[in-house]
Write a structure and sequence with these properties.
Number of domains: 4
Helix content: 40-55%
Mean pLDDT: 87
Strand content: 5-15%
Radius of gyration: 26 Å
Distance between the termini: 80 Å
Length: 516
């Protein structure tokens, strides 16, 4: 005889679907709707910071939790009564529902403990004892033992990670467009994988071994993505001291490779011994050695890395060991590695500037950040949302007026479909310029100049179909950065795009700014 009634089992299955869903994918809304029926409130499919009250985003969760709390006594009684007939599947369904209820019981206090200054101090996690008592009441057998496969500290640590991950992703990766929503979902998967159940069983202890490579145009928030992943790592909880063992926020080390010479990059990453080169007056630890086990090193613009340092980095990824400059004793890298580039690494490999074996070590987890133009094309309202967000960051309490003024200036002075070649950085500078001078002067890039020339020649009907295709494919490829993205945008095969790209025109477009 089954331990649960048909109604109870259907509800448990629905709760588990919700609990395991990626919160930034449509799957969550579908699961909540299935669980709540008529009580479900449509909140759209792209959770974004640009809402009047972020708490509204959890209204369906609170409704589901209220129903679950009402049913828990009956579910617990069914488990105890039918223990002999309880299947592994039923036990997992019950445990998953209990975890969902426990998470939401402590969610408000955990958010306060994690992110509000007033809650700082050694006693801020004391409610762990209350959580553990509730866990035992719902999951332990009266005579001892538990039907749960997870310890209380591990559950608590997972809940803390879920809170932090949602915060860093939701607060830092903004925009109500579909590309922004897909980016948030991709970052969530970089933290937890696509299978949360498997993650909480064992993968939480192995994700630091995976390298994340973030690609996309300059100014599209690649470092924000890296920071969100790094600061969302699993942190064990010590129930004796009632403290988490570390804080990943204290161990995020970004290194901008493009801003340093090869010698400095090598020293920054691997460290050096005194006297190993001119100016090395004392021993110095590099970021790889200084990085804590729960920390992360972020290599921005990895496409600029010199070939000889690429070899050393490959050894770090393959064997987790490295040797400081001028030393003979190997050190061990114990943190997580993240990297980013705006270059097309497949082309860099073909041209002999980037090692193929290093690329395949970097791409175990790939994320691509969308351009601002992509976001605006799919959802024009995102421009307003982003301007309001940036104005708040730039102008504080004066942000409503600054945002309105910036939007008015953009609408009156920039052409419809302006491509924002500088992406979010350019938009932020536009907001700042309008706030200070009530105007903004865009830099006329080589890409913009070519786009203008192409439009003028097409309008004059002076181009052959082949010339039009060649120049437009080159422009799209220059903007999006990869053949795959350009092919998707153009509706063409990747090989066709590759054949049409004009290397001379591409070099001209990427050559820099032109006179206004």
């Amino acid at each position: 005889m089954a331990s649960f009634s048909r109604t109870q089992r259907a509800f448990l299955e629905a709760v588990n679907r919700v609990a395991l869903a990626n919160p930034f994918l449509p799957d969550l809304a579908e699961a909540e709707q299935a669980a709540l029926g008529a009580e479900y409130k449509d909140q759209g499919l792209t959770w974004s910071l640009q809402v009047d009250d972020p708490r509204k985003l959890r209204s369906n969760a609170w409704s589901l939790c209220a129903r679950l709390e009402e049913m828990l006594p009956a579910l617990r009684a069914a488990v105890l009564k039918g223990r002999a007939q309880l299947t592994a599947e039923e036990a997992a369904l019950y445990e998953g529902a209990v975890l969902y209820a426990l998470y939401h019981r402590i969610y408000p206090r955990m958010v306060e403990s994690a992110f509000r200054e007033a809650a700082q101090g050694r006693g801020r996690w004391s409610y762990y004892r209350e959580f553990d008592r509730d866990r035992r009441d719902l999951l332990d057998w009266p005579e001892g033992g538990s039907l749960s496969q997870y310890s209380a500290p591990h559950m608590f640590a997972l809940f803390y990670q879920l809170v932090r991950a949602f915060h860093w992703i939701f607060e830092n990766i903004i925009g109500s467009s579909a590309p922004a929503a897909r980016l948030r979902a991709a970052v969530w998967q970089s933290v937890f994988t696509h299978d949360l159940q498997r993650y909480r069983r064992s993968l939480h202890a192995r994700m630091g071994d995976l390298v994340t490579l973030i690609t996309g145009p300059s100014g599209t928030g690649k470092e924000l993505v890296a920071r969100a992943i790094a600061l969302s790592r699993y942190v064990p909880f010590d129930e004796r001291s009632l403290q988490f063992v570390d804080d990943p926020a204290a161990h995020f080390h970004p290194v901008n490779i493009a801003a340093l010479s090869s010698a400095l990059v090598e020293s920054e990453l691997f460290g050096h011994r005194r006297g190993s080169f001119t100016g090395a007056l004392q021993d110095r630890k590099g970021w790889l050695e200084a990085c804590a086990p729960l920390g992360a090193v972020f290599l921005d613009e990895i496409g600029e890395l010199a070939p000889e340092i690429q070899v050393k980095l490959l050894r770090v990824i393959e064997g987790r060991s490295f040797t400081p400059v001028g030393d003979t004793v190997a050190r061990r890298f114990v943190g997580k590695l993240l990297a980013a580039t705006n270059r097309d690494l497949s082309k860099e490999i073909r041209d002999g500037r980037f090692r193929e074996d290093l690329y395949y070590r970097l791409c175990s987890d790939l994320i691509r950040t969308p351009s601002l133009r992509q976001q605006i094309e799919e959802s024009p309202v995102v421009l307003r949302d982003l301007v309001q967000f940036l104005a708040k960051r730039v102008a504080g309490e004066e942000s409503p007026g600054v945002a309105a003024q910036a939007l008015e200036w953009i609408q009156q002075h920039l052409p419809a479909g302006y491509p924002w070649p500088g992406n979010y950085r350019e938009l932020e500078q536009c907001v700042r310029n309008v706030m200070v001078r009530r105007q903004y002067e865009p830099v006329r890039t080589a890409e913009a100049a070519e786009a203008g020339d192409l439009f003028a020649e097409a309008r004059a009907a002076s181009l052959s179909a082949e010339d039009l295709m060649r120049r437009y494919c080159t422009l799209v490829y220059a903007r999006l950065g990869t053949y795959e993205a350009a092919a998707e945008r153009l509706g063409l095969d990747r090989r066709t795009v590759k054949a049409k790209v004009d290397d001379g025109l591409l070099a001209k477009i990427r050559g820099g700014d032109v006179a206004s």
